[in-house]
Write a structure and sequence with these properties.
The complex is a heterodimer. Chain A is mostly helical. Chain A contains five helices and no strands. Chain A has a domain of 30 residues. The longest helix of chain A has 23 residues. About 48% of the residues of chain A have low confidence. Chain B is an all-beta fold. Chain B folds into two domains: 99 residues, Immunoglobulin-like (Sandwich); 669 residues, Maltoporin, Chain A. Chain B has a 25-stranded antiparallel β-sheet that branches. In chain B, strand 33 and strand 34 form a beta hairpin. The N terminus of chain B is likely disordered. The chains are: A mainly alpha, B mainly beta. Chains A and B meet through helix 1, helix 2, helix 3, helix 4 and helix 5 of A and strand 5, strand 14, strand 16, strand 17 and strand 18 of B.
Chain lengths: 105, 916
């Protein structure tokens, strides 16, 4: 157990240099905003608070119009979704384990 | 118009979560000031989200509030003639949270916009709910098993481990909510709905210090909000794959010698093929949106014993309609099947040697879900939710011609799975709530109505063939490899849970950083025996919740909280279902040579159960005190002390029974024990009263009485350290030290039903001590890092758990007790001397994300149990030993303490996804 706690503390302690840097009086008082935005953007894959494909952001792209689905990428997307749904529907019938006592239900 | 960035324009940008009403929706509020800090009334504030635009105007105090928002990312913009506009983009507001967005506007003629993206930890300085959830950014990046999201995600939270949640039963004491409405099985309170991990938009995990709007739990809660469509078309295609070749054997030679079954049949995934496709978007801009999802989840794995197969097609559809800017209406439907093979039955998985000893499961279901949200101005909000489901699950033995056998001498199991089971369920629940902001008060009032139907049918397979054909069904009890006896019964139990709940709560910001939270929840729960058309179970409960939060720092960076509350469990049929008619007599049979014939020799009349008039519903009393400290903008540390005490256990007690003590010497350690024989058998019938069993007096022959206490208590301290994503990495590390002791276990439904109190032998003899799911030490660490240059995300989850306590028991023949069945008696104090291996597992996800325009492509590999640790997580508890059939007629002796269950070895899962 002691080894476990030591390891946990070691992991917890790892951020401390960064922490010290943030509170250091020698640290830049106000980072350039452009850099901050760029840094945040670089972190986006990890920062995504929700599952991908959730469409939970305001619309600011070509994705606000159905014309997107007339382009190759849009067509492929429709095909992928349609194929996946069709196979799920096939499985719905084909993979069902029918209970012996509910035959006909 | 030239768009410039003037940092000075935004001097104040506080993003602090302030939970008022922890529901499905969110609130964005704030204050607009000028450069001198003077409030600005009359400012037009525009909120742009995925479902369109909302506007409001600041009041005389310069304040604004948008209530009833769907969680997601929003842009906030303020405009006033003569001032430069200010805005904040990508304000990410999560379920049940209030985000403050304070903006400062400078005098100027041009419209200049400042965009700020923030990423910081935040502390809610007003709530008393201890936030034990993992950051969602971690949850969705981690190598989490997807089989059953509701249960699995809970398991990643501090204090919740497999079967226990802060000392409560995690299998039956948790509230498992989908879009804010409980979805548990109305029979025993376990998980019923199995849904696609990818339909989760948000998830909220918690348990401690919950306000009155949350009820129906004595363990923990998980609230999952599902995805919806928006103005932006969105799509997801994901495929996950694994195979036996990507697994490793973690059974050591030493373990293999003690248990050849584990060596030859290690836990692993043989095949995983799981895909999801989703599409969402507008049918009419700002007004009508759709969301569709299809999944086919296929897995073949050995969890413990036989190979378990599952194929689950799942389909989801949702329509969201905004007829006005203040109304949101949604309707959703899910259809899924849960087709399983290899499920275990009478024969424990650890000794199953053949698929012939398993059962197949057929379980289709429909889930419907309608919601209406109405916003009245900026201070009142109405929310109505209706969710229900229909479904059943049937358990069919693979070999209906093979009854189950148990050898009382050797402890060996043989034969087939042994029974049929059919479970029919419907559940409907309506939740309505009204939130009102008045000055320093945030009120919420709500009502819930639940109606759920349960029908459970059980029958042994035929002793001499298929039980469906009418031959007597039963279970063989052999002795020393020879026929001894058989017995059997059936049941068909039907009942309805009826619950009406009312709650009122207030969050009162008294001032000076002090916030008072208080409320009360009233639950009227009744259980109706369908055939009797009568309520046989009737309870009325009032659960107060009182708490305070003190903002020591004045800016929300150092907060102390305290909470006391009483939480009542949900309505479950299991606690009173034995009082419903439908149980047949217990028939005993004499068994002929070579099990070729059976002859009925005796019958115990059906056990009769009635429910005490004064019965009270099970609850947990909770007291906790916590300290949250923010360090800089990135770090957060919290410490919480927890005390929980469960009350109102429900169990059955023999009416009018007297008990004769006798001494029994166990060969385990040659210690003598006092056991109890039914003293007035034949004088009083075998009838039971379902009652609260916190204190039970057993009458002893001769006139004395013996009092036993049914209790369970949890004491714990929880420490959580979080680091928000910054400089490419983030972390969340927790440590919980706890103790759960008592006479009533936290396993399954032990607290609401079992035969534990029917004789004093299983409650008064060696029953007090650490509960089976008492995990003394628990460490959970999530760490995520984005490697520069190659932009590969590395996310790790490490879990360390103390082993489970276990206790030796001896199966003692019924004749010793004058009882209708043999009893398993602990021969040492419970949990005092033995525990399973400590568990230590590291899981890893490596993911490469490539953005191409609006498209995002991800390739990932999940590595479960990176170091292929082999932990024994189950040991033989039977004394003296058990004989386990091995294979092809071979058998081995499993002695007390020998390994019976192992964790899974290293397994690699590969995944790919495309989204926009």
């Amino acid at each position: 157990m002691i080894r476990v706690l030591v390891l946990a503390l070691a992991i917890a302690a790892a951020p401390m240099p960064s922490l010290a840097g943030e509170t250091s009086p020698t640290a830049p008082a106000a980072p350039v905003l452009k850099d901050a935005i760029a840094k945040a953007a670089a972190n986006t894959p990890l920062a995504s608070a929700r599952a991908q494909g959730s469409g939970n952001k305001p619309d600011k792209s070509e994705l606000g119009s159905t014309s997107f689905f007339k382009k190759p990428a849009g067509i492929i997307a429709i095909v992928v979704v349609a194929a996946g749904t069709a196979f799920m529907a096939y499985s719905w019938q084909h993979d069902r384990i029918h209970s012996v006592v509910r035959k006909g239900q | 118009m030239k768009k410039s960035i003037v940092l000075a324009l935004v001097l104040v940008m506080a993003v602090a979560g302030m939970a008022v009403a922890q529901s499905l929706t969110s609130v964005i509020s704030g204050k607009i000031v000028d450069q001198q800090g003077a409030v600005l009334p009359g400012v037009t504030v525009t909120l742009t989200g995925r479902m369109g635009v909302k506007t409001t105007v600041t009041d005389a105090k310069g304040e604004f509030r948008f209530v009833g928002l769907t969680p997601g990312a929003y842009d906030v913009k303020s405009e006033l003639q003569g001032f430069r506009s200010a805005s904040q983009q990508n304000v990410d507001v999560t379920m049940g949270k209030t985000v403050d967005v304070d903006l400062s506007m400078a005098v100027g003629g041009m419209t200049e916009v400042v965009e700020v993206v923030a990423n910081a930890v935040s502390i809610d300085p007003t709530t008393t709910a201890t936030d034990t959830s993992m950051a969602q950014s971690l949850l969705f990046s981690m190598p989490i098993t997807h089989n059953n999201p509701a249960v699995n995600l809970l398991n990643y939270s501090p204090g919740v481990n497999d079967q226990a949640a802060f000392g409560g039963s995690a299998s039956s004491g948790n509230s498992l909510m989908l879009d804010g409405v409980d979805t548990r099985d109305p029979d025993g309170g376990t998980a019923w709905t199995f849904y696609n991990y990818n339909i989760i938009e948000e998830v909220q995990v918690g348990s401690l210090g919950q306000p009155a709007e949350y009820g129906g739990f004595t363990g923990a809660i998980i609230n999952t909000i599902t995805k919806s469509g928006g103005n932006r078309f969105s799509m997801l295609g994901e495929y996950r794959y694994s195979t036996e070749g990507l697994s490793s054997n973690n059974v050591s030679e030493a373990v293999g010698k003690l248990n050849p079954l584990l060596a030859t049949k290690p836990v692993r995934v043989f095949k995983l093929k799981d895909y999801t496709v989703q599409l969402g978007g507008p049918l009419k801009k700002d007004k009508l949106f759709f969301f569709l999802s299809a999944q086919r989840f296929e897995i073949s794995q050995r969890v413990n014993g036989p190979i378990r197969g599952e194929v689950s097609p799942r389909f989801n559809a949702k329509l969201t309609w905004q007829p006005t800017s203040s109304d949101t209406i949604s309707a959703a439907l899910q259809y899924d099947q849960y087709n399983q093979t290899g499920r275990t039955a009478f024969i424990p998985g650890s000794v199953v040697t053949s698929q012939d000893q398993t059962i197949d499961q057929d379980s289709p279901e429909y889930i419907w879900n309608g919601q209406w949200r109405k916003v009245f101005g900026s201070s009142t909000f109405l929310e109505a939710k209706f969710l229900g489901y229909w479904g059943y699950y049937d358990l069919n033995p693979v070999r209906p011609d093979l009854p189950a056998h148990y050898d009382g001498d050797t402890g060996a199991y043989s034969g087939g799975a042994g029974y049929w089971y059919q479970a029919d369920r419907t559940r409907n629940q309506l939740n309505v709530s009204l939130s009102k902001y008045v000055g320093a008060h945030s009120f919420k009032f709500g009502a819930e109505i639940e109606r759920s139907n349960v029908r459970s049918r059980f029958a042994y397979v035929g002793l001499l063939g298929n039980g469906l054909t009418g031959t007597p069904g039963g279970y063989f009890y052999d002795y020393g490899g020879a026929p001894y006896m058989a017995y059997g019964y059936t049941y068909d139990l039907k009942g309805k849970n009826k619950r009406e709940t009312f709650y009122a709560q207030d969050q009162w910001k008294v001032g000076g950083g002090f916030t008072l939270n208080f409320g009360v929840r009233a639950d009227r729960i009744r259980g109706e025996a369908t055939e009797l058309k009568k309520d046989v179970y009737k309870t009325m409960s009032y659960g107060p919740r009182v708490g305070a939060a003190v903002d020591l720092s004045g800016n929300g960076t150092s907060v102390v909280r305290a909470f006391y509350g009483q939480m009542y469990d949900g309505a479950v049929f299991t606690s009173w279902g034995r009082a419903a008619p439908g149980l047949t007599d217990l028939i005993f049979y004499e068994v002929g040579a070579n099990w070729k014939s059976v002859t009925k020799v005796d019958a115990n009349p059906v056990k009769k159960y009635t429910v005490a008039d004064n019965i009270k519903h099970p609850r947990v009393d909770e007291f906790n005190i916590s300290w949250d400290q923010q360090i800089g903008k990135v770090y957060r540390f919290s410490a919480t002390g927890i005390y929980r005490n469960w009350k109102n256990f429900v169990n059955s007690v023999l009416i009018g029974g007297t008990w004769t003590p006798f001494t029994y010497v166990t060969a385990f350690n040659n210690q003598s024990m006092t056991l109890y024989k039914w003293g007035n058998k034949g004088v009083v019938p075998q009838e039971f009263l379902i009652q609260n069993t916190d204190s039970v007096d057993y009458k002893l022959t001769g006139g004395a009485s013996m009092n036993v206490q049914g209790y369970r208590k949890y004491t714990g301290a929880m420490f959580v350290f979080q680091r928000a994503l910054r400089d490419r990495w983030q972390a969340s590390i927790s440590y919980v030290i706890s103790s759960t002791i008592g006479t009533v276990s936290n396993s399954s439904t032990a607290g609401v039903s079992s035969g534990q109190f029917e004789t004093p032998n299983t409650i008064a003899v060696n029953s007090d001590g650490p509960t089976p799911y008492d995990r003394r030490h628990e460490v959970k660490a999530f760490v995520g890092y984005q490697i520069p240059k190659i932009e590969v995300a590395v996310n790790a989850y490490w879990r360390y758990l103390s082993g489970w306590p276990y206790t030796p028991y001896q199966r003692i023949s019924r004749s010793n007790f004058n009882w209708s069945g043999s009893l398993n008696i602990n021969v040492q104090p419970r949990g005092a001397f033995y525990q399973t291996d400590n568990e230590s597992n590291l899981d890893l996800r490596l993911e490469k994300v490539i953005d191409v325009g609006v498209h995002r492509f991800g390739l990932y590999a999940d590595i479960q149990n990176v170091f292929n640790q082999g932990n024994v997580i189950g040991n033989q508890t039977r004394y003296p030993s058990a004989t386990v059939d091995y294979a092809n007629g071979k058998s081995f002796t499993s002695k007390f303490g020998d390994p019976t269950v192992m964790n899974a070895g290293r397994q690699v899962t590969l995944g790919a996804r495309w989204s926009f």
